[in-house]
Automatic annotation (TrEMBL):
Pfam families assigned to the protein according to its UniProt record, in alphabetical order: Sugar_tr (PF00083)
PANTHER family: SYNAPTIC VESICLE GLYCOPROTEIN 2
Spans through the membrane: 20-43, 55-76, 83-102, 108-130, 142-160, 172-193, 244-268, 288-306, 313-331, 337-360, 372-395, 401-420
Location (main, coarse): membrane
Topological relation to the membrane, as annotated: Multi-pass membrane protein
InterPro entries, sorted: MFS_dom (IPR020846), MFS_sugar_transport-like (IPR005828), MFS_trans_sf (IPR036259)
Tagged with keyword Transport: yes
GO cellular component, one term: plasma membrane
Name used for this protein in its record: MFS transporter
Annotated organism of origin: Rhodococcus opacus (Nocardia opaca)
Keyword field: Membrane, Plasmid, Transmembrane, Transmembrane helix, Transport
Length: 457
């Protein structure tokens, strides 16, 4: 094999299984996050939920992700990707079941925060593990596939939720409990997943890394074939200074701007569609269709990411999606077909920025701090997303649907401007190259360029 054995290995059944197991986390994220919008329709009258508490419940999982992402990323780099790879799924199952028994809105809010924390914990573990095993040719598409599963989970939550919530007085309780089922299935599937050999080498565990390589690739690969980014020199504190601070800033800005409209629409999709006059009775089904359109967008991005390049995709996707929301904001009472076309355009073209919210964080940081970086980015971006989701019902009540859509458009266009200025191109690079602070990766006049850290790691 070539010197960088993992980057240039052929795609195997192991890689495909690992991608499927890793995709379970985003599926649960989409299912759990989107489900609250469906459940609120029935639980709000029963529990006497105010607009303020609706916003808190919608943002609860995102608030939990703030804490879960920050802590779990560090633990992932300190103790390994595989250690808590299954434990978090058990916790998701427990918290999902407990939602069935709530009698007060504050009880549900606590559980939503806890659910968000454990869902966020899966991000750095699963994505780092997949990134560090996947060959460079397939890294972008497989990481993009994780985003696809978020939208599959979101669409599933609307279909399942619509059926369960309307089934009886406790329908919303059964629906919130239902996320325990895929979590338990995924827990069983993940048992026995090996630790990342890149991480093992970064911790000096050469013999353990060799054992994993032999198990996955056979006797033809040794630890000497692997280029380890950072060579043990990068620490968590480096993420908050120099070139890596610039990369953190860029990813957080574009990630937050891309996610705020998506999370807001998922948390309050039925309410937003009803406000646009697209049919309150069919709002849940309409939200599910919107999820499928998001899925079309990310699948399309997955198929072309290696050809289009990361930078071009994030810029044009943010721009066109923002303009679509701008159209809805300026003409909220436009004919239905125009609103549907605008919503479809937004959903499809935001697919590019969405897939890059998983690709960029995993490519731009070396093995020693990859989990920490992904965790911190997840935490930081959820602050903005949580604020955005919290403000949605208040904006709809006090400003109306038009200004609310204009604010969402402005957020996406800020992400576009940040990408024009700072987005790097990492397509086709090995992890050692993509995660290095080098002028060839991020131009010297952009965040990430550090004249004192230009060596290839």
């Amino acid at each position: 094999m070539k010197p960088n054995a993992l980057d240039d290995a052929p795609l195997s059944g192991f890689h495909k299984r690992l991608a499927i197991y890793a995709a379970g986390g985003p599926f649960l994220d989409g299912y759990i996050l989107s489900g609250i919008g469906v459940a609120l329709v029935a639980l709000s009258p029963e529990l006497g939920v105010s607009s303020f508490m609706e916003g808190m419940l919608g943002a609860g999982a995102l608030i939990g992700m703030l804490f879960g992402g920050a802590i779990s990323g560090f633990l992932t780099d300190r103790f390994g990707r595989q250690v808590m790879y299954t434990l978090d799924l058990g916790l998701i199952s427990v918290f999902s079941v407990l939602q069935f028994f709530v009698t007060e809105a504050w009880m549900l809010l606590v559980l939503r925060i806890l659910l968000g924390a454990v869902v966020a914990a899966d991000y750095p573990m699963a994505s780092s593990l997949l990134t560090e095993f996947t060959p460079r040719r397939y890294r972008g598409p497989l990481l993009s596939m994780l985003v696809c599963m978020f939208f599959v989970g979101a669409a599933a939550s609307y279909f399942v939720g619509d059926a369960l919530v309307s089934s009886g007085p406790n329908g919303w309780r059964w629906f919130l409990l239902s996320s325990a089922i895929p979590a338990l299935i995924l827990l069983v599937l993940r048992l026995g997943t090996p630790e990342s050999p890149r991480w093992l080498l970064s911790r000096g565990r050469k013999s353990d890394a060799q054992a994993v390589l032999f198990k996955v690739y056979g006797s033809g690969v040794s630890v000497s074939d692997i280029v380890v980014e950072g060579s043990g020199t990068t620490r968590a504190r480096d993420l908050l200074r120099g070139g890596y601070l610039g990369r953190m800033a860029f990813v957080v800005i574009f990630y937050t701007c891309s996610n705020i409209p998506v999370f807001a629409i998922y948390a309050f999709g039925p309410k937003i569609l009803a406000a646009l006059g697209l049919g309150e009775a069919n709002a849940n089904v309409g939200s599910a269709v919107l999820s499928l359109l998001f899925l079309v967008g990310v699948v399309a991005a997955l198929c072309v990411i290696n050809r289009s390049g990361r930078r071009r995709m994030v810029i044009w996707g943010s721009l066109i999606a923002g303009l679509a929301l701008l159209l809805m904001g300026v003409f909220p009472e436009a004919p239905t077909w125009i609103l549907v076309a605008a919503f479809s355009t937004f959903a499809i073209f935001n697919g590019g920025p969405q897939v890059l919210t998983w690709v960029y964080p995993n490519e731009l940081f070396p093995t020693e701090v990859r989990g920490t970086a992904v965790g911190l980015i997840t935490a930081f971006t959820r602050v903005g997303s949580a604020v955005g989701v919290f403000l949605v019902p208040l904006a709809l009540d006090h400003l109306g649907i038009g200004p609310t859509m204009l604010l969402a458009a402005a957020v996406l266009l800020v992400g576009c401007l940040a990408s024009i200025r700072w987005a790097p191109e990492t397509g086709g690079l090995g992890l050692d190259q993509a995660s290095s602070i080098a002028p060839g990766i991020i131009p010297a006049d952009r965040p990430g360029a550090d004249e004192q850290s230009t060596r290839i790691r």
